[in-house]
């Protein structure tokens, strides 16, 4: 018997394809549908498409960085949970991201169980 239960869609945005691939593999095993973008402009286009339920967004990307991308995403969908990810985190960057509406902020290297829990909480709060 086939069910029509919608799988939550996670958009992973990182300019490192290996990071997108690793997160996609780990999270698809949890029953999520994954989409990826390697830059901010593509991420914004995917959010405009409307099917994204939560975003994992790298801060340090060439061209349009994660903070600018966060601003644009929040203009389009203010309630969409956006989790900022960075390998170069500072307290000031984290504070800025949270002021702009980021749901949470984690640093690389990260614990995958921590990301899974943040995703679960972000999706539950959206319901």
Q: What does the radius of gyration come to?
A: 14 Å
Overall form? globular
The ordered H/E elements are: EHEHEHEHEH
- Structural class comes to alpha/beta
Helix content: 40-55%
Estimate the mean pLDDT confidence: 89
Characterize the largest beta sheet: strand count, sense, and whether it forms a barrel.
Answer: 5 strands, parallel
Distance between the termini: 26 Å
The order of strands across the largest sheet is: 2-1-3-4-5
- The tally of helices reads 5
Strand elements, count: 5
Percent range for β-strand residues: 15-25%
Uncertain ranges: none
Task: Report what the structure shows.
The protein has helices at 17-28, 40-48, 66-76, 91-99, 112-126; strands at 9-13, 33-37, 54-58, 82-86, 104-107. With 127 residues, it is an alpha/beta fold. Strand 1, helix 1 (17-28) and strand 2 (33-37) form a beta-alpha-beta unit. The radius of gyration is 14 Å and the shape is globular.
SSE blueprint and pairings:
Blueprint: E1 9-13, H1 17-28, E2 33-37, H2 40-48, E3 54-58, H3 66-76, E4 82-86, H4 91-99, E5 104-107, H5 112-126
Parallel strand pairs: 1-2, 1-3, 3-4, 4-5
Helix pairs in contact: 2-3
